[in-house]
Amino acid sequence: MRELFDDIPRITLSDKADFLIDTCFFVYVFDHYKEPEFNKFLEKHVVAITSFNIEELIHIFNKLKGHTKSRIRKFFHKKNKLSILNLPIHPGNADKEHSFVKNILPAIDKEEHDPSDAVILAAAIKVSADVLTRDKHDLFNTRMENFLRPYGVRILNKIV
């Protein structure tokens, strides 16, 4: 599975993006046959998924439905406009996740208690990107929307 990501363009935290895709949103796209809409979206915007989220995807990949896995593989085999935002951390190391978040904006670490959600929020602030997620409990809520407003980051649950 990892080899699928070797040829995907990379960006860094010093680059800009329009949108970051959360793991659950990425899976949702393929689980619900939304690729045509997603591909049009990719053509119009600078969209990235973090290396952190790619590692989460690899971790859960075998638990996905067969059609979802197949569609994700096909997507990565084709040329597309999705980039990977390289992050210096990996899932499963909460201390490094907290440290990464605190280096970008300490208030996120206090506001968002799930370290992996805090990572994508910190990355979004750093690259000035909105976040697409299906996470209704921790990210897509009024509390987080109000917190992120001053930073120009929106949390969305569907393609705009």
Using the CA coordinates, give the radius of gyration.
15 Å
pLDDT average, as an integer?
Answer: 92
Per CATH, the architecture is: 3-Layer(aba) Sandwich
Helix/strand-derived class?
A: alpha/beta
Could you please say which CATH topology applies here?
A: Rossmann fold
- Under CATH, the homologous superfamily reads 5'-nuclease
In whole angstroms, how far apart are the ends?
29 Å
Estimate the strand proportion.
Answer: 5-15%
Basic shape: globular
Care to describe what's here?
The mean pLDDT is 92. With 160 residues, the protein is an alpha/beta fold. Helix 5 (94-104) packs parallel to helix 7. Strand 5 (130-132), helix 8 (142-148) and strand 6 form a beta-alpha-beta unit. The protein has one domain: Rossmann fold. The relative contact order is 0.19. It starts with 9 loop residues before the first strand and ends with a strand. It has a six-stranded parallel beta sheet with strand order 1-4-3-2-5-6. It is 49% helix and 11% strand. It is globular, with a radius of gyration of 15 Å.
Q: What labels would you give this structure?
A:
49% helix; single chain; alpha/beta; 6 strands; 6-stranded parallel sheet; 160 residues; globular; Rossmann fold
Question: What's the layout of helices and strands?
Answer:
Blueprint: E1 10-11, E2 19-21, H1 23-31, H2 35-44, E3 47-50, H3 51-60, H4 66-77, E4 82-85, H5 94-104, H6 106-111, H7 115-127, E5 130-132, H8 142-148, E6 155-156
